[in-house]
Amino acid sequence: MSTPQYDPALAVPSQLGNWTPSQTNEIWLHAGSKRYEAGALKALARAFVGGVLLSLGGIFSLLLGGGEVALSATYPGVGKVFSAMVFPFGLIMISLNGADLATSNMAIFAMTVIKGRTPWWSYPQAMAYSMIGNLAGSLVTAGAIGVGTGILSSDPYRSYVIHAAVLKCVTPTWSEILLRAVACNFLVCVAVWQGTMATDVVSKIVAIYFPVFTFVACGFDHVIANMLSIPLAMMLGGDIKVGYYIWKSMIPGFLGNCIGGLILVLPLVCEGLIPFRMIWYGH
């Protein structure tokens, strides 16, 4: 017996005005199936736009952080908060405009594969398309906006970007980056999950904002965000080699982000692990 197809037009939000967890599951499953059916060109295009939008939020964050160097030297935590305040704008734009990000696809396609809505190879296929598209969008934005406009080419911004890349790629160990990436994408996927639950634009913005703010303020590793910050530092003269970046940052960041997305998805697709029925219906 085939699984009934989810029709968003027939769905009705809960009495609280948002989708229930079960409905949100179905929205993700429906979205994953549609993305799988869309083909390579659409997937690459959506991922390219996702990389651009996230990178624009990242550049805003770097500008704000670089402009607060003196304050950060005295109060390091305050500087992190300022940078984290604006970074979520990128993911909010991605969510509202229907672009793709590899990190959210890590959760969505894990769910569709586990639930049998797409074949197992849809996961690595989606990762390949979204990583390539996100990387292309990030590099274009880094070159055209970060370097081409000159807004980050002079100090204190240039020194700040390079120093931030060293703290991301050089200073921590491989295993530390892996664990930071796990925590990062758990929070990112919580943000996307909450944003999907919301049924109006303002609620979506608020639901997405705080988990993303948290991961940035904590300094966790997002493989796509690092596709902007570390290559941008290299373009500005930072002494980080491409091979070192791939081994030390991209690989542990990608693996950790995959694990983080899976940690969120497994309880959602396994009945009884989280008492959603009790939460929503009181029994």
* SSE ordering: HHHHHHHHHHHHH
What is the terminal-to-terminal distance? 30 Å
Q: What integer value in Å does the Rg equal?
A: 19 Å
The biggest beta sheet, please? none
Helical proportion, percent range: over 70%
Tally of DSSP helical segments: 13
According to DSSP, the number of beta strands is 0
Descriptive key words:
disordered C terminus, disordered N terminus, mainly alpha, 283 residues, globular
What does this structure look like?
This protein has 283 residues and is mainly α. It has 13 helices and no strands. Helix 2 runs antiparallel to helix 5, helix 5 runs antiparallel to helix 10 and helix 7 packs parallel to helix 11. The radius of gyration is 19 Å and the shape is globular. The chain starts with 20 loop residues before the first helix and ends with a helix. The N terminus and C terminus are likely disordered.
Question: Secondary structure elements and their pairing?
Answer:
Layout: H1 21-38, H2 40-66, H3 69-74, H4 76-86, H5 88-97, H6 102-114, H7 122-147, H8 157-169, H9 174-197, H10 201-218, H11 223-235, H12 242-269, H13 276-281
Summary of the model, kept short:
The protein is mostly helical and 283 residues long. The protein is built from 13 helices and no strands. The protein is 75% helix and 0% strand.
